[in-house]
Amino acid sequence: MQQTPNAHVRPNPQSGPDLNREPKCAPSPESAPAPAPAALFAKALALHRTGRLDEAEALYRQVLAAQPSHFDSLQLLGVVSMQRGNYAKAVKQIATALEQDPDNVPALNNRGNALNELHRFDEALASFDRALRLQPDLAETHCNRGNALKELDRFEEALASYDRALALRPDYAAAYGNRANALNALGRYDEAAASCERALALAPNFAEAHCNRGNALKELGRLEEAVASYDHAIALRPGYAQAHCNRGNVLHELHRFDEALCSYDRALTLRPDFAEAHSNRGNVLQELKRFAEALSSYDRAVMLQPDFAEAYSNRGNALKELDRFDEALASFARARSIRPQFADAHFNEALCRLLIGDLARGFEQYEWRWGTEQLRSEQRNFTEPQWSGAEDITGKTVLVHAEQGFGDTLQFCRYLRRVAERAGKVIFEVQKPLLTLMRQFAGVAQIVVRGEALADFDLHCPLMSLPRAFATRLQSIPAQPRYLDAPADKAKAWRERLRTHQDLRVGIVWAGSPRPGLPHASRLDRQRSIAFECLAPILEVAGCTFYSLQKGERAVAQLRASTLRHHVVDFTDELHDFADTAALVENLDLVIAVDTSIVHLAGALGKPFWLINRHNTCWRWLREREDSPWYPTARIFRQDATRSFDPVIARLAAALADHAADHVRAR
Question: Number of folded domains in the chain?
C-alpha cells in the first residue's frame, strides 16, 4: 500500500485584539458622544480585557443602540466573534467598522487574521498589505502577513515578512516561531529548529514553538526528540489538538502504532472536526490491519473537508485492502480530480490497476512514481530524452538504468533483449551487487554500475518504464522460462560441493530487508517477513535438505540463535553478490521464500519457487492466482483474509511432503 503522509497544519500564533489601546470613536453627526454610551463602552472594554465576552458583547450592543456608528464597538464586536471562533461573523462585523474608518490599521489587521482563519488567504494578504501601506513599521502585521503568504505556499516571501517583523522587533517570539514554519516548508529544517530555539529562549512557555520545533526535528529524523517537543507543548497546553496530532504522526513513524492511535484519539476528543487527525488516524489503523475502521476515519475526514485529496487517496488504499477495487479506483479518481498533479493518487491508482491485471492503464499511471515522496529522490535527470517506445531507435545508443530494488531489476531486465533488437546499442546501468550476474546477459553491449562514468548515449529509459514502452498486457508478458544464467564456473563449483546431497535440495528465505528512511518499504517488509521459527513445519518435512539463502543481519541472527538451526545448511557467508547466490540456486531443486529478490532470481534462472505471499500482495503477483504470468516456475501460497501465515505454512509443508516423496520415487 502506498500511503500518503499528510502535511501538518502547523499552528500560527496570531496577534490578539488590540484591547489596550485608547478607543477611537467614529465621527458622529452630533458634536460629541453622550456620556452614557461612553461609560457603557468603558465598562464593556474592561470586561472584554478580562475575558468576560458575553457581558462585553451585551454592552457593546447597548452602545451601538445609542450610537450606531461607534467605531470601536463595531470593531470589537468582531474581535469577540474572532475569540469565539466565529470568523465569518467577525469579518462582516469588522467590515462594518471599516466602512466608518477604512484606514484603521488595527481593524485591517484583525480582519486579515479572521480571513486567514477562513482560509481566504489572498483577501487576508490584501488586508495586511493595506495596513502596512498605512503604517509600514508594524512588526505584528508583518508577522501576520507572513502567515498568509505561508498558507499560499509563497514561502520565501513569508520568510521575508517574518524577518522584517524581527528587524522591527528582535524579541518577537511569535515571529521566530512562525518563521520556523516557512523554513520547514522550504526544507531548511536545521534553521527551523534554531528559529524555534530562539523563540523558546524568549518565551520558554511558548507551546506553539515547542510544537514547531517537533515538526523540524521530525524532518531531521530526530524522532524521539520530536516526541519530547510535542510532549512539552502538550504539558503547557493540554488542549492543543495539533500537537497531539503531530505527536501521533511521529509515533507512527516510530512504529508505536497503539500510542499513535491514542494521540489521534485525544486530538479528536479536543477537536472532533479535525479532518487531518481523522485521516492520519486512518493511516495508523491501516498499519494495525483494522481496515474497516480506517475507512470510517477517512470517510469522516472527507465529509469534514470535501477537497481533502490526501484523505481520498489513502481511503482508496483502505478500500483496496478490503478488496473493493472499483470503489478504490473511484476514490483515487476523486483525489486526482481535486488535485490533478497529485502524484501519490496517480501512483496508488497505478498499483491498484496493476494488481487487478489492468496493465495498460496501470503502467501508464506508474510513470507518476517519480512525483511521490518515496521515489522523488531516485529520479534521474539526464539531458538526453527518455525513450517512450514510440521513437525509432535504430542505430541509436539507449541507456537503460535500474531503479528501486534488486527484485525489480531481476524481474524487468527480461526486456533488455527487446530493446537490443530495436536499438543499435544498449548500455545497462545496475546496482553493484548485480553487476557480475548481469554480465551473463546476452544482447547488452555494456554493463555499468550506478555511479560510474557513462559512455555517450542518445536516449535513456528507466527499467520499469519498459513494460509501458512495449505496451505490455497480461497476454503479452515476455515470460520465457529462463532469461538469466549463473556464471558457469561458480555453478560448477557448487555442483561439485553438493553432489553427495541426494535429498530434495530446498533453498529458504524468510525475511526481506528493511530500507531505512523509506517508511513505505519498511512497512511492507514487516508485512511480508516472518520469523525463522515459523518455518518449523516446513523444516520437519522428511527427504529434504534445506539451504539458507537469507541475507540480512537480523534475520541471519534468528537462524543462528534458533534450536532449529541444525535443520539448515548455511553457506551465506560465502555468498558475496547475486552471482554467488545464483550459482548456489542453480544447484537447488526448489526455492521457498517470502516476497524478496530471491524469488525473482529463482524465476529468472528458470528454477521452481514457492512464494509465501501476504494477503495484500504486491501488484506483480495479481489476485487469487496460484501461478504467475511473469514466471512459469512460480507457485503462490497466499494468506487468506485472516492475514495469518500459519495456514500458509501448513499448506506449503503438506505440498512439500508430497514433492519430496515424488523426488524419492524418481531417484
Answer: 3
